[in-house]
Specification:
The complex is a heterodimer of chains A (401) and B (717).
Chain A lengths: L4 E8 L3 E2 L11 H16 L8 E5 L11 H8 L7 E5 L5 H14 L5 E9 L11 H4 L1 H7 L4 H12 L3 H20 L9 E2 L5 E3 L11 H5 L6 H15 L19 E10 L1 H7 L5 E10 L9 H12 L8 E4 L4 H11 L12 H4 L6 H16 L3 E8 L3 E9 L1
Parallel strand pairs in A: 3-4, 3-5, 10-11
Antiparallel strand pairs in A: 1-8, 1-9, 2-8, 5-8, 6-7, 9-12, 11-12
Helix pairs in contact in A: 1-2, 3-14, 6-12
Chain B lengths: L3 E5 L4 E6 L11 H17 L5 E6 L5 E2 L3 H10 L1 H19 L5 E5 L3 E2 L1 H7 L3 E5 L6 E2 L13 H9 L1 H9 L3 E2 L1 H7 L4 E3 L3 H13 L22 H18 L4 H13 L4 H16 L2 H18 L15 E5 L3 H12 L3 E5 L3 H20 L5 H9 L1 E4 L10 E4 L5 H14 L5 E4 L6 H5 L8 E5 L9 E6 L5 H13 L3 E6 L6 H17 L4 H10 L6 H8 L1 H18 L8 H12 L12 E3 L5 E3 L3 H4 L8 H21 L6 H12 L8 H8 L1 H15 L9 H8 L7
Parallel strand pairs in B: 2-3, 3-5, 4-6, 5-7, 6-8, 7-10, 11-12, 11-14, 12-13, 14-15, 15-16, 17-18
Antiparallel strand pairs in B: 1-2, 8-9, 16-17, 19-20
Helix pairs in contact in B: 1-3, 2-3, 2-12, 3-11, 5-6, 6-10, 9-10, 10-11, 12-26, 13-14, 19-21, 19-23, 19-25, 20-25, 22-23, 25-27, 25-29, 27-28
Classes of the chains: A alpha+beta (401), B alpha/beta (717).
Chain lengths: 401, 717
Amino acid sequence: MPHAAIIYDAVRTPRGKGKADGSLHGVKPLKLISDLLVALQARNDLDTAQVSDVIMGCSQPVGEQGSAIGKSAALMAGWSDAVAGSQVDRFCGSGLETVNIAAAKVMSGMEDLIVAGGVESMSRVPMGAAAGAYFMDGELMTKTGFVSQGVSADLIATLGGYSRQDVDAFAVRSQQKAMVARAQGHYASIVPVRNSLGQIVLAEDEFIKSGTTIEVLAGLKPSFAKLGEMGMDAICLAKYPQVAAINHVHTPANSSGIVDGASAVLIGSEAIGEQLGLTPRGRIVATATVSTEPTIMLAAPAPAVLKLLARAKLTLDDIDLFEVNEAFASVVLRFRDELGVPEDKINVNGGAIALGHPIGATGGMLVGTLLDELERRQLKRGVCVLCVGGGMGVATLIERV
Amino acid sequence: MQNATYDIRPGGAALITIDMQDSPVNAMNDAFSVMLDEILAKLTADKASIKGVILTSAKQVFVAGGDVAKILQLREDGAEAGYAFVEGLKAQLRQFEKLGVPVVAALNGSALGGGLELALAAHHRVSLDDPKIQFGFPEVGLGVLPGGGGIVRSVRMLGLMKALPLLTEGRRLNPVQALEIGLIDELLTSKDTLIACAEAWIAANADATQPWDRKGYRIPGGDMFAPQNAGAMASFPSMIFKKTRGLLPAAEKKLNVAAEGTQVSFAAACEIESRGFAELLMTPPAENLIRTMFIQMGEIVSGASRPAVEGKNKVATLGVIGAGMMGRGIAYSAALAGINVVLKDVTVEATEKGRAYSQDLLDKDVARGKRTVEERDEILARIHATADMADLASCDMVIEAVFEDVGLKRGIFRDIEAVLPASAIVATNTSTLPISLLATGSQRPDHFIGLHFFSPVDKMHIVEIICGEATSPETLAKAYDFVQQIKKTPIVVNDSRGFFTSRVFSVFIDEGDRLLKDGVDPVLIENLARQAGMPVGPLAVQDEVMMDMLLRTFRANQALDAELDDDYAKVYEICGELCDTMSSRGRPGRSAGAGFYDYAADGSKVLWPGLADLFSGKAEMAHDDIRDRLMYRMVVEAARCLDEGVVNNVRDGNVGSILAFGFPVHTGGVYQFVRSAGVDAFMARARELAQAFGERFEPPAGFADVLDRATSLNRNA
């Protein structure tokens, strides 16, 4: 009988624009995450010596984000020397992967209290800084049928018959939901970011674009048409010969935003919670890892959730809310239609199109966002799922307690 | 010393002048390797006393390329033999680099493949500024890579971004371009100063070393993971895939060897390159490309299918009757080659229009700086447009290129022969009418021959020569010489319905139509055809060629069948049926804006949604079956052509299929396709297809023997 993996807290920074003029550009990623750890300790009056590990997702573990940043963060936060730390890379799923690893360790009874989550400063350590064989080794890329994720998203749109209007309309909905959520304080677990002088540099997600209309979006050029034309479309058609041509519908406005941010999720056993006087917020019921065809790359969310539910012996109807990472609009549309999940259960407070996707941190942010909303609405169960490079998918099922 | 001279210059440099006795291009064969060993031994012995080394050539070229037969031999010996061979060459070139005295390559002519590798092993390269000189790595066209350090050195000298296009595209650079990217160091205008320049450099650079042998050396532009290279490195594999469809591994392998080489030491990079060479050597495309595009093409160029008639003929004046699409193109090609052309049509306007076509093309060349105004005028002056048959009296060859109408053509032959001298050759550009049938309209059928050109004539290199029953060997020889005179590639076939190219290509189209009729999704048909390596799918091709035109020739073939008690048209009867279906719906093809596809103003096309009303498009069929139906249909038809004696030798079919209708080059052509698959495997699969889909896939009995007999190096009798 596994131990329960309780979520005692889930905090996150607001997301800053991932460019040199973003509000978090001046805050080094180590500080983004270590300050979250400080906040976690303060919010929960935590005896940090009881935390055995800080497992941090990060997709570009080089330079400022190199060297097992989880351990560096624990040290920087002034936590007890007894706290270990590490870094995990499962591309976009890293921040949820760490949550799942923590849950497994606690459920197995091997560890009692772990901080999971992730950090990504895309403005300081950009995508590609740590690009490895998957993106650069021609032999592997040809064998895999590698295409850039945006082209994959366009392939998903083509196969699903999602037009430019469909994906743009979805993007507008994401923006609208995010604006309402931010204004009405739905994002309860955001911890403002302060600089080294203690001044608040960012208190709210700043990437949201108010005033977004479908007309504005319609004027944007497709981002991946050129890459497709140069050769990636040919690779898609070789694997999917039933497709006549790729319909390039994704633009910066209907794809996830490039942002800076960090997340931290405190996960432990019931026993440690009682011992330390921690208040449970949720419970991780099940986790799932899947991998699927790499050329289409982003079609794993549905299979991941089906695996998750089977393991938990639950059905889709048992789930009140879904957080499906908005890597690209077509990803969520496909998930919605493949499983027949009503859209009013999906990303109810907006998603990465509006808020941004700080790659290694996002998974932990989705957990916090989901928990906030389950609490706000007094609902029971939620699922977080992310599509991941290489065709992978990561999912987690949580219950509010 | 054989094959090279070794002179110590007054200034103390050793001047090596390569002059291979057996090769006008100093090809790098076994004798070349022995010569290098001898040179290196002497240089090593003289090291203390010489000031440097200058490498040059006594030929027009510096050193141009490898020995194709040697590569085939290595393949037969195995991967280890291939590896050892390139490692041996590398060791020789490395000796030059590490000799301890400055080495200069004085490039008096082209350096290609191994020749360029030799030049890169020098510390300095000076070249004549002659636009005819070429530098490049053509090995990708052979299906292999430059295994003598060409990849390693060009990357370490130029950086990945500059080296990769040169390596993966088989591009040839002229001296100015080579200087621009840093492949060569200096340009000189006069051959006389070449050696002096080399000597001067040697005197000023006594301590010369290669950049990669110096402390602190870094690859220019960063390694494969450098952020500035990321975008390109991430795109290169798919760019290569778009061109090769994963069917030709050489370009990909060169990319990977080049990239991986940036992660390791010079020695390790060399070893990776050698292994890459050995791996490519053993791939089927290497064998297929070498056999067909080099050996068999070489046979064609040297006249293996030409009768052993003495004396190479030159046409001084060519008559072209019919100034339409084909005639005007033939006139242009001939004028370019220095031949006087008399272009005739029914009206002066028609002939002027035909001549204006050449003017347009030449004007474009002038605008692009590829030709001077004088050159344009000189070429145009050769074309004389006329409506008067009598003006063709001076022609030594006449090509008729009018409508495919037997009566019309026969009339023309009668008229032209009344005017021509008895020695003149009369050729017809027909693509469907039997030569022997047309020859009955000729007074001198021994001087009558088919010369089937392809559209657009200025771009299509191949000409299908068709011998009628009565065509004499002398006539064939003259026709062969003429095709080579206008710088095109001749294949020789014997008269038969559809000849070779039309017949074999028509079944590709027919099979595409059969698949459509069988209910296969048209998107799958088109995509799988391209996946198999065909440049265009069968439905798109029909639109290009225009289905109303195809229908006309189909009906003409049916009429001929009735007349001759033949059944040729049956071979593509489903094509005939669908051309009728589509044409009668007002959808004849691309120039009408509608065929199987709808064509937009911007040139893009989309499959006509209405196809779904005519053909279900929902039939389940294994992708391998779809692909093999398209390819095997062509190959089996080609096998019948060989069996029936339409072609006598595999070279004409292989080269013909690739050049005339884009049969995938990685297969080596229709007959090499069989060899490469293995004759038994091919026959088994063909029979499987015949069982499942019809006897059109049944290969001729005894084909294996026919194939063996037709694969011979002997000239045509």
